[in-house]
Amino acid sequence: MRRRLAAGNWKMNGSRAALAEIAALAEAFPAPASEIVLCPPATLLAPAAARAEGTALRLGGQDCHPEPRGAHTGDIAAPMLAEAGAAYVILGHSERRADHGETSAQVRAKAAAAQDAGLTAIVCVGESLAERDAGETLSIVGAQMAESIPEDATAEALVLAYEPVWAIGTGRTATSAQIAEVHDFMRAELTRRFGAGTGDAVRLLYGGSVKGANAAEIFATSNVDGALVGGASLTAADFGPIVAALEAAEA
Ligand SMILES: O=C(CO)COP(=O)(O)O
């Protein structure tokens, strides 16, 4: 049985004032059946971890360097995220692939570093609109999976997030049929590569304009184990209903 997961990606948003949202969310879900993770900017990780202490809420980073330390100005190593209180790290988000030219090979190295540091990597894959229109969705997702996921990945160290680029921040959610096609494909690919045990245990998240209003339908979709949420994760008022829908899906 896969434990469902609601992960919030704050991206480059949030100040210390937003830490109150963490407290509110933790208070709203004191003992959730699903896992709830917030990934604030790195500068807020330590104070967020302090707020979340003693609650069911878990924290994550939004990127890490493949090396554990060294001369890499501006970068953050996976062990540093762990020390600051993170249990997760988002890797290979399409915004990082676009803004920083991140390649799948780099994502794979980062995922290995995250695993070494005891973090669970939330590895993101997803096609652009042009790629979908060209009928290349599954081949793009398959290639990103093959190149971004380390050889020794485990279900504890890996979560896979399908985030179609055209659905991120656009209000344009993928349909259930579109999500199911990709998630079923990802499940089959994981099983083919890692065997039935790991293949069946890795959690698959959907991301892209998830809101309280569409969450229940998305969580009822084949092989969807939760969501990676951007804009609607910034406040407890918006993220709470998404978590509640996930809790209801679990029941
Ligand atoms: O990119 C996303 C999460 O990583 C999705 O962002 P939105 O939920 O704002 O569309």
From the alpha carbons, calculate the radius of gyration and give it in angstroms.
17 Å
Give the number of domains.
1
Under CATH, the homologous superfamily reads Aldolase class I
CATH architecture: Alpha-Beta Barrel
Report the oligomer. Answer: single chain
Shape: globular
Secondary-structure content class:
alpha/beta
Low-confidence stretches: none
* Mean of pLDDT: 97
Tally of helical runs: 10
What this model shows, in words?
The structure is a single chain. The protein has 251 residues and is of the alpha/beta class. It contains ten helices and eight strands. Helix 1 runs parallel beside helix 2 and helix 7 packs parallel to helix 8. The longest helix is centred in the last third of the chain and has 26 residues, at 176-201. It binds 1,3-dihydroxyacetonephosphate.
Short description:
By secondary structure, the protein is of the alpha/beta class. The chain contains ten helices and eight strands. The chain has a single domain, classed as Aldolase class I (TIM Barrel, Alpha-Beta Barrel), CATH 3.20.20.70.
Topology of this structure?
Elements: E1 5-9, H1 19-28, E2 35-39, H2 45-52, E3 58-61, H3 78-84, E4 88-91, H4 94-99, H5 104-116, E5 120-125, H6 129-133, H7 137-148, E6 158-162, H8 176-201, E7 203-207, H9 212-219, E8 226-229, H10 236-250
Parallel strand pairs: 1-2, 1-8, 2-3, 3-4, 4-5, 5-6, 6-7, 7-8
Helix pairs in contact: 1-2, 1-10, 5-7, 7-8, 9-10
List descriptors:
10 helices, TIM Barrel, binds 1,3-dihydroxyacetonephosphate, alpha/beta, eight-stranded parallel beta barrel, 251 residues
